[in-house]
Amino acid sequence: FQEPFVADEYIERLAWRTPGGGSRGGEAFDPKRLLEEFVNHIQELQVMDERIQRKVEKLEQQCQKEAKEFAKKVQELQKSNQVAFQHFQELDEHISYVATKVCHLGDQLEGVNTPRQRAVEAQKLMKYFNEFLDGELKSDVFTNSEKIKEAADIIQKLHLIAQELPFDRFSEVKSKIASKYHDLECQLIQEFTSAQRRGEISRMREVAAVLLHFKGYSHCVDVYIKQCQEGAFLRNDVFEDAAILCQRVNKQVGEVFSNPETVLAKLIQNIFEVKLQTYVKDQLEEHRKSDAEQYLKNLYDLYTRTTNLSSKLMEFNLGTDKQTFLSKLIKSIFISYLENYIEVEIGYLKSRSAMILQRYYDSKNHQKRSIGTGGIQDLKERIRQRTNLPLGPSIDTHGETFLSQEVVVNLLQETKQAFERCHRLSDPSDLPKNAFRIFSMLVEFLCTEHIDYALETGLAGIPSSDSKNANLYFLDVVHQANTIFHLFDKQFNDHLMPLISSSPKLSECLQKKKDIIEQMEVKLDMGIDRTLNCMIGQMKHILAAEQKKTDFKPEDENNVLIQYTNACVKVCGYVRKQVEKIRNSMDGKNVDTVLMEFGVRFHRLIYEHLQQYSYSCMGGMLAICDVAEYRKCAKDFKIALVLQLFDTLHALCNLLVVAPDNLKQVCSGEQLANLDKNILHSFVQLRVDYRSARLGRHFS
User: Fold this and answer.
1) Cα distance between residue 75 and residue 68, in whole Å
2) What is the pTM (predicted TM-score) of this model?
3) C-beta separation of 242 from 272 below 8 A
4) What is the distance between the alpha carbons of residues 535 and 530, in angstroms, rounded to a whole number?
5) pLDDT digits (tens, 9 = 90+) for 82-124
6) CATH number for position 591
7) Where would I find the Exocyst complex component Sec10-like alpha-helical bundle domain in this sequence (predicted)?
8) How far apart are CA 426 and CA 337, in angstroms?
9) Domain span holding position 422
10) pLDDT tens digit string along 337-376?
């Protein structure tokens, strides 16, 4: 009966215990005996099953009997519960009836007692009024200083009554009551002041509650505000002092006054209109006309600290619309300074930017040339763009780019600070317009007065293409201009875009930026093009000076060292330097674009140069060596088109040395098959044996 029960294991154990049922100790296996044991065991199990079944039936009968008894008991309990609920409802109705009667009785008693109390109160007031009529105050409430609270309540009521009396008959008594009203009011305010100095919050609360119904209650609040500020502004940081003071008063004011939010708001108003306004005026007026930089820094700092203080005060209960309340207080302090803020900002930015640029040019001992404008200059610009001719004399810049990263950083830093001030100090409706004006100043001084001037000077400094030993500095200008423009673009995205992103000024700024980029790109392209022309011109001079006609038609064909010529060595050395310079001066796709153009012009120069000579067999081999070196140099360009052009040129040079009978086969090869026959023919004509071997017949 133990779990888990496994039938196979049970039978195994039974067989193992039966003598002759297994192979224990050498006993022989006796199947009959095992069968007999199994039959007996089955009978025992059947008897056991019948006994257990009878027990189960007995338990089921007992369970059914108990379930019926339990159900009967539950029904009896439900009936008892219903009876109890009915009794509870009856009791509830009876209690409601009694309560109604009691309330009605209370109303009747109150209706009788209230007129009685009023009558008693009126009788007392008449008694006190008679004392004022007689001119002698005898009641203890007026003579005992400890009963000032009761006296204040009485005199306040008498004062209201006296106001309703005709002046001609009761002028004297009205005057006495008013005098006593004023005396008590002064006493209460004096008592409040003394309690505040002693720090007795409970007494302050009592006196304030009494004064609440007097006309001098506002004077009590003023006294409280004045005394709160005594000794509160002793440090240099008036804003931190104000925050600490308001934090302290906020905890106390609710314990003293019944309208704490009004008192706290009045304290804050007093701090803003007296302490802060005076402090701001002292800080700003000192530099307003003499030092625009310090004035703007102080204005930004003071406005920021004032708004930060306002944010701290927002956590206090100041009434329904505390945001508007605090905004008006800030506006009242700064309105006279914010009205013309942008004019001061633009004026300062203009003078500061001009000074930064002038200081730089002075450090270079450079007198800035004026770049002309108007019809003649525009005409020159159009002619230069279409013809790429240098108009006017070339200027020797002595390697100076007239671009300074330090100047640019200074200009961008000034503009960044101007954008930050603009964001903080401009009215939201004027923010995009003001930001655009600051951006326009940046464009004027950074892009036009600095970058564009450097490009113009760089263009004027590019020598003509036929100059010898010319120094080419324009690529340095390109490199620095590219770096500077990345900084300019970063500031545009980081500091200007957040200020104009949701306004119509966005498209205007983007267009202005696009125009200045296009204007610079035109001049950069023009300068790069003319610089490439100068590079090619320098290579022409090298070839003209170093390449000799005897290089490719040696007098002694048998005593020639097969290697590239001296002209080739110098040209390749020059080209490699220029390739490295181009890579260092540009980035991105511009590198490949300029290198491709340079490579194409390099190829054209070598192609035209080779066609100026006649070639013997050994001279042709030398030409092939030169072109192989040029092709090796072309690999440095890492431009597929340039390498392909030199591969084709190398194949063309093979026409200078190939046997006459093989010319046709070579011309139909993979690299030359697609070339025009006239090109192939022009190279074959360069061979010294062209006429003697009648090579022209191969192209007829």
Assistant:
1) 11
2) 0.69
3) no
4) 9
5) 999 999 999 998 999 898 888 888 887 777 666 666 665 655 5
6) 1.20.58
7) 150-698
8) 11
9) 368-373+397-540
10) 999 999 999 999 999 999 999 999 999 888 887 765 444 4
